[in-house]
């Protein structure tokens, strides 16, 4: 029986195999080991086959095939799981353990089952190699270690690169064993938690307005018209605590704090402009300065009980002489002393830094075009300045050229119901074109004494017009005149400053300049425009509709990493197919793989073993054998009792 457990004769070329002893048979001491030289004839080899237990490929490799199938099923389960939850919110994952943990568990199973074909295949190869011809027993150890882990596989491949001929199929299997070490890293890298932005069905809204009208309160009879308290507060807020820009003063509806408005929109607003008119200031004697035509004067001496007149404001109401054509709803002028701090400004005419400075600012209704978005509850709208248009003052000749009536503008294109539409004027009133627009020339002609100019209006669709009603114009101008006209800062002798807090802050002890005045006027205009846009009950505001987005943690899948696992399944399937084909062509039909029992049975004589050589038969036979590892004749030997 010894011949059965040693080297079997091989007459079949095993494709894919090379070995370290291919040039010639070795004459090393391995020849002295208890194995027979295979010098049998072909007929004897064929006779020997009758004693070999021949098994079908399925029965021989069923567990390896099952492992490949199970590995494919596991990777399919991972793919399906991640496909279902890809880009889903993390909150939709209801399991008690994280999705990364589930993937890790499936990956561990995948890694375990794929180790079976590699281990069995490499273990089987060594017996196929030795069944072909005699080899060094060191090769047996080399291939056996490769079948038990990545380290042995790495040594096997290292020998391949060192020029020692190694089975190419075995190297392929060893490479797969090494690549399997990266399975965990690749699977975990395939799943990550990132931030996703989702569009929700509920919409976002920005207020916009075309017409500012009916924001006055009180009886219209006998001119008893009063500006609404909301607008009064808006003007005072613009004076005392001006908003930085329209973004912070606009009421936006956005439930999540993250919204986009992809289409630019137009809205009625208030625009400002300021100019430095210090060159018009005249210096009189006794440190006195005059702004001719505006009825404004300041002085830095204590010539009367009021003391120094440091700042004086006027409006167009104070202008002497004929009314000049103005396109603004209201304006104001500031004449002030330019000095440097309290001590310098208090200098009773002795200071050399005192000078008279003057500025004029106008506020005019306008149409602005904005792009807007809200991110993390911070709303920001940016004006497309190139599209800004100004409303012009108009009067209705039918009513009479007695007062300024309103501001209006007809546009060629506007934003309506979420879309931009083209606007065409009509010379006659129709069912659609119902709003009359008079030209700016009507107003300028009205300023001429005894003017008889008459002009027919053009008619527009209401959504193509922007207007500030006559009541709004009248009451706002009256309120501004009352607030700004004759506003002053006085410095009585040996007393503190006297004047409204807002004008004291604006003057800032003589440090006021054009930039501070311009910022003051901008804040005032912004506050007024914002009030127009947040008063839906009286203005009939339309809303710009946008998209609401929800930013939340979500599951991101990097499929490229998972394809690595799929490629491993395919590669191991190919490796197993090659092993099965080589095994089928080999004259040796045993099922020995990674078990150590075939090694032991070379020295242990088993009763009633007859011709069975399968691993299961050897295992059954070994169960009844008792062995001891003990020193015998100076060497440790495994002996049977």
Structure in a nutshell:
The protein has 641 residues and is an alpha+beta fold. Helix content is 36%, strand content 24%. InterPro entries: DUF3176.
Task: Give your account of this protein's structure.
The protein is an alpha+beta fold. The protein folds into three domains: 56-190 and 558-594, no CATH class; 200-550, no CATH class; 596-641, no CATH class. α4 packs antiparallel against α5 (137-146). The chain is elongated and about 135 Å long. The two termini are 21 Å apart. Residues 1-54 and 218-222 have low confidence and may be disordered. Keywords: Membrane, Transmembrane, Transmembrane helix. This is Metallopeptidase, catalytic domain protein. The chain crosses the membrane at residues 65-85, 97-125, 559-582. It holds the Pfam family DUF3176.
């Amino acid at each position: 029986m010894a011949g059965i457990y040693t080297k079997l004769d091989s007459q079949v070329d095993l494709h894919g195999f090379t070995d370290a002893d291919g040039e010639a048979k070795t004459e090393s001491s391995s020849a002295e080991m208890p194995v027979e030289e295979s010098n049998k004839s072909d007929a004897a080899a064929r006779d020997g086959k009758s004693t070999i237990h021949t098994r079908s490929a399925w029965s021989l490799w069923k567990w390896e095939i099952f492992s490949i199938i199970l590995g494919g099923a596991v990777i399919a389960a991972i793919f399906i799981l991640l496909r279902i939850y890809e880009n889903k919110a993390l909150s939709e994952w209801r399991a008690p353990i994280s999705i990364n943990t589930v993937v890790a568990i499936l990956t561990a199973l995948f890694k375990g089952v794929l180790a079976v074909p590699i281990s069995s295949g490499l273990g089987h190869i060594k017996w196929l190699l030795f069944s072909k011809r005699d080899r060094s027993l060191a090769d047996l150890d080399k291939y056996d270690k490769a079948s038990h882990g990545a380290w042995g596989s790495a040594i096997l491949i290292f020998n391949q690169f060192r020029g020692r001929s190694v089975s190419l199929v075995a190297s392929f299997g060893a490479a797969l064993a090494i690549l399997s070490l990266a399975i965990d890293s690749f699977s975990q890298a395939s799943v990550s938690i990132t931030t996703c932005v989702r569009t929700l069905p509920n919409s976002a809204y920005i207020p916009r307005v075309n017409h500012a009208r009916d924001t006055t309160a009180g009886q219209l009879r006998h001119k008893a018209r009063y500006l609404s308290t909301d607008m009064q507060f808006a003007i005072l807020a613009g004076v005392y605590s001006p908003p930085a820009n329209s973004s912070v003063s606009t009421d936006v509806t956005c439930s999540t704090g993250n919204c986009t408005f992809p289409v630019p929109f137009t809205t009625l607003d208030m625009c400002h402009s300021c100019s430095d008119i210090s060159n018009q200031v005249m210096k009189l004697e006794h440190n006195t300065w005059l702004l001719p035509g505006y009825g404004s004067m300041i002085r830095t001496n204590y010539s009367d009980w009021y003391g120094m007149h440091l700042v004086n404001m006027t409006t167009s109401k104070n202008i002497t002489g004929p009314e000049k054509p103005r396109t603004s709803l209201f304006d104001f002028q500031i004449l002030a002393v330019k000095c440097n701090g309290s001590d310098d400004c208090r200098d009773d005419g002795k200071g050399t830094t005192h000078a008279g400075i003057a500025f004029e600012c106008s506020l005019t209704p306008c149409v602005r075009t904005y792009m807007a978005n809200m991110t993390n509850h911070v709303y920001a709208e940016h004006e497309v300045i190139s599209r800004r248009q100004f409303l012009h003052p108009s009067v209705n000749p039918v009513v009479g050229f007695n007062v300024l009536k309103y501001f209006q503008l007809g546009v060629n294109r506007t934003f309506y119901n979420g879309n931009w539409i083209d606007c065409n004027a009509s010379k006659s009133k129709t069912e659609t074109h119902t709003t009359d627009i008079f030209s700016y020339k009507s107003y300028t002609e009205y300023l001429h004494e005894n003017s008889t100019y008459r002009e027919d209006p053009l008619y527009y669709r209401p959504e193509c017009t922007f207007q500030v009603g006559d009541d709004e114009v009248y009451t706002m101008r009256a309120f501004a005149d009352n607030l700004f006209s004759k506003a002053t800062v006085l410095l009585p002798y040996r007393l503190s400053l006297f004047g409204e807090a807002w004008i004291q802050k604006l003057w800032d002890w003589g440090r006021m300049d054009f930039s501070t005045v311009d910022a003051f006027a901008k804040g005032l205009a912004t506050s007024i425009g914002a009030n127009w846009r947040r008063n839906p009950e009286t203005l009939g505001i339309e809303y710009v509709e946008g998209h609401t987005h929800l930013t939340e943690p979500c599951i991101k899948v990097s499929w490229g990493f998972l394809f690595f696992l799929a490629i491993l399944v395919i590669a191991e399937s190919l490796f197993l197919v090659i092993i099965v084909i080589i095994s089928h062509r080999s004259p040796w039909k045993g099922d020995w793989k990674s078990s150590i029992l075939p090694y032991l049975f070379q020295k242990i004589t088993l009763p009633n073993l007859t011709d069975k050589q399968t691993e299961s038969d050897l295992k059954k036979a070994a169960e009844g054998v008792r062995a001891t590892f003990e020193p015998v004749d100076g060497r440790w030997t495994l002996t049977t009792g």
